C-alpha cells in the first residue's frame, strides 16, 4: 500500500508550516468495541486527547517490573544491543526498545487486558504493538524532550496511514513536577501541525536522542497551548496514561535525584497497519516500528 | 579585610567535595530587628531556608513592572550594555543585571518597605543591595539552570564573608509546573557543599549563562534532596519568595510558550560587606557584585 498523493498529513515539505484539521475520529467505531471505559472517560479522552487512570496497577506489581527493567539496563547482552538507547553525553541507558520481545515479564504486562481492552475500545478494533520501550529518565542527567506529535513521525517515517494508534505509559516511579513528567497539550490531537524541512535517511538513530526533524514551529505550538493549556501528568506508581498518537507532548529535564521510569507501549489498530514510508525513506528498524507482524494481540 | 585562612566554607580546592555544617544562624539577631513577619513565618524560614508570600504585591503593580522590564529588554542602549545577558545560542535577553541602577521604577520596588523590612528582619540589621536583576526566561527557549548555592559563588568569587544575605524574587508572571519554576531543597541552607575544582579568572561572563565551577557533586545533592525533598515554587504574579543565600536551588527549562519573569534582589547585611575574593581572583564587575557602596537602603 502506498499513501495517497493527496496526503492530508503532508509534513517536512518545502512548504511553510501549517495547521491541518484531523480527519479521523478520536474514539473509533461507536466507542463500544469493548466496554471497559465509562462514558465520561471516553468523552474526556475525546476532548483532551488523553486519559489518566490513577492506580490502574498495584504498586507491588509495578515494583517487580521496575526491578526487571533495572536488570535489563545493567545486563551486558542487552546494553550491547541496538535496542538500548543511551543518554546524550553519558553511558547511562535511557531507553530499551522492543522490551515486549526482550522480556517475557514485560510482554505479559503489555498484553494485560487491563490495558489492551482500553486500547481496543479507543481504537474500535483489535490492536497490535507498533512499538514498545522502557524509559528511565535518570536523576540529574535526564534531558528534556521537546514538543512533538508521535503521529507526525510515524506517518512520515513509518508510513502509518491514519491517526488510529494510542500510546500507553505506565508510571513505574512517582512522577512529580520536579522529575521531568510527561506534559501534554489538551485538545492538540484535533490538529495536525505540518512541520518544515526534509528528513535525511537513517536519521532515526539520532532522533531518538535529539530532535531536529518533525519539530513543530513555535507559532503553531503557542496557538495550541493558548487554546488548551499544558497539563503535566504527575502521579504515583501504577498510574497509567493513554494518549492519542497525535497529542502534542514533551517532558522537561529531570533535575531531581530520582529517576523517572515508565513502561511505554504503542497500540496500533490492525486496520491501520504500516504502509511505505514517505519520500522514499527506508523503513526504520524492527525495534522502532514493527513490520514483522500485524497480528492482533 | 581578608578572609581567615581557616575558612569554614572553603570550596573549589584540590580536595574532595564535602558537606560542612552552617556556622551562622539562619534568622539573625533575635529575629525582631523589625517585626513584619509572624513567628510562624520566621520558624518556617528558619527550617526550610525559604518563605513564599502569596500576593504580597497587587497584580496591577506587577503588570507595570513587567512592562518596564520588557521596555528595557528591547531598548538598544540597554541591550548593548554588559548588564544584558543573552540566552545561550540565541539573541534573546534573558537577564538584565543592576536594574536598580538602570530603572528608577524598579529601584523603587527594591526599596519598598514591604520587601526591605522582611530582609532587615531576617538579617537582623540594615541591608544594602548586593545584586539585582530582572529575569525573563523566554517561552520554549528558556534553558534549565542546575543546582547551586549562591553563597558558594558569592563567598569564593566575591569575598562575601558569612551567610547573612537573602534573595528576594518577585514573581511577575504566573509560575506553573510547566514554565521552569524555581525549585528549592528545603533544609539545604543548613549545610554547605564544598565543591571540587579551581575557578579560572574572569569566568563570570560565562558562568551567568553556563555553570562549570561551584557545581555541587551528585552524592551531596542526592543526600540533601533525600533529607528535604524538592519544592517547586508556583504562584500568581505578585507572589514573593525569600530564600537564604545558601539554599540549594535550580530551575528546569521553560517548555511552555509563556515567559517566566521575575524581579530579583539580593539583600546583604551591612555587617557582611564584601572582602577580597578567594584565590587572588579579580573582583567581579559592579553589576554582578556591588562594591561601590555598602550604605544601608
TrEMBL record, chains A, B:
* Keyword Methyltransferase set for record: no
Q: Which UniProt keywords apply?
A: Dioxygenase, Iron, Metal-binding, Oxidoreductase
Q: What class of enzyme is it?
A: oxidoreductase
Extract the signal peptide range. Answer: none
Task: Tell me what reaction this enzyme catalyses.
Answer: L-ectoine + 2-oxoglutarate + O2 = 5-hydroxyectoine + succinate + CO2
Instruction: Show the InterPro entries listed in the entry.
Output: EctD, Phytyl_CoA_dOase-like
Report the domain of life of the source organism: Bacteria
Pfam families per the record?
Answer: PhyH (PF05721)
- Cite the SUPFAM superfamilies for this sequence: Clavaminate synthase-like (SSF51197)
GO molecular function annotations of the record: 2-oxoglutarate-dependent dioxygenase activity; iron ion binding
EC number assigned by the record: 1.14.11.55
Under the heading Gene3D superfamilies, the entry gives: q2cbj1_9rhob like domain (2.60.120.620)
Required co-factor(s) are: Fe(2+)
Q: Which residue windows are transmembrane per the record? A: none
Role played: Involved in the biosynthesis of 5-hydroxyectoine, called compatible solute, which helps organisms to survive extreme osmotic stress by acting as a highly soluble organic osmolyte. Catalyzes the 2-oxoglutarate-dependent selective hydroxylation of L-ectoine to yield (4S,5S)-5-hydroxyectoine.
Family to which the UniProt record says this protein belongs: Belongs to the PhyH family. EctD subfamily.
Oligomeric state and interaction partners are given as:
Homodimer.
In Swiss-Prot or TrEMBL terms, this protein is called Ectoine hydroxylase
UniProt lineage: Bacteria, Pseudomonadati, Pseudomonadota, Betaproteobacteria, Burkholderiales
Amino acid at each position: 500500500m502506498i499513501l495517497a498523493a493527496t496526503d492530508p498529513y503532508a509534513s517536512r515539505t518545502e512548504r511553510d508550516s501549517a495547521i491541518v484539521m484531523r480527519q479521523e475520529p478520536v474514539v473509533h467505531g461507536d466507542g463500544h468495541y469493548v466496554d471497559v471505559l465509562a462514558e465520561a472517560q471516553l468523552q474526556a479522552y475525546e476532548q483532551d486527547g488523553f486519559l489518566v487512570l490513577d492506580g490502574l496497577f498495584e504498586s507491588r506489581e509495578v515494583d517487580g517490573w521496575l526491578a526487571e527493567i533495572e536488570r535489563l539496563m545493567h545486563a551486558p547482552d542487552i546494553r550491547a544491543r541496538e535496542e538500548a538507547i543511551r543518554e546524550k553525553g553519558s553511558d547511562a541507558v535511557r531507553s530499551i526498545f522492543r522490551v515486549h520481545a526482550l522480556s517475557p515479564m514485560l510482554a505479559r504486562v503489555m498484553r494485560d487486558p487491563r490495558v489492551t481492552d482500553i486500547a481496543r475500545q479507543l481504537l474500535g478494533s483489535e490492536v497490535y504493538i507498533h512499538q514498545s520501550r522502557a524509559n528511565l529518565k535518570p536523576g540529574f542527567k535526564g534531558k528534556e524532550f521537546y514538543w512533538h506529535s508521535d503521529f507526525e513521525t510515524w506517518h512520515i517515517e513509518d508510513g502509518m496511514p491514519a491517526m488510529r494508534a494510542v500510546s500507553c505509559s505506565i508510571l513505574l516511579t512517582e512522577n512529580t513536577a520536579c522529575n521531568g513528567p510527561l506534559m501534554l497539550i489538551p485538545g492538540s490531537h484535533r490538529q495536525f501541525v505540518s512541520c518544515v524541512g526534509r528528513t535525511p535517511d537513517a536519521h532515526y538513530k539520532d532522533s531518538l536522542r535529539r530532535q531536529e526533524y518533525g519539530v513543530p514551529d513555535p507559532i503553531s505550538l503557542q496557538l495550541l497551548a493558548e487554546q488548551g493549556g499544558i497539563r503535566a501528568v504527575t502521579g504515583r506508581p501504577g498510574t497509567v496514561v493513554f494518549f492519542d498518537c497525535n497529542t502534542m507532548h514533551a517532558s522537561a529535564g529531570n533535575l531531581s535525584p530520582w529517576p523517572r521510569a515508565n513502561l511505554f507501549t504503542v497500540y496500533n489498530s490492525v486496520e491501520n497497519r504500516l504502509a511505505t514510508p514517505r519520500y522514499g525513506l527506508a523503513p526504520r528498524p524492527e525495534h522502532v516500528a514493527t513490520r514483522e507482524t500485524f497480528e492482533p494481540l
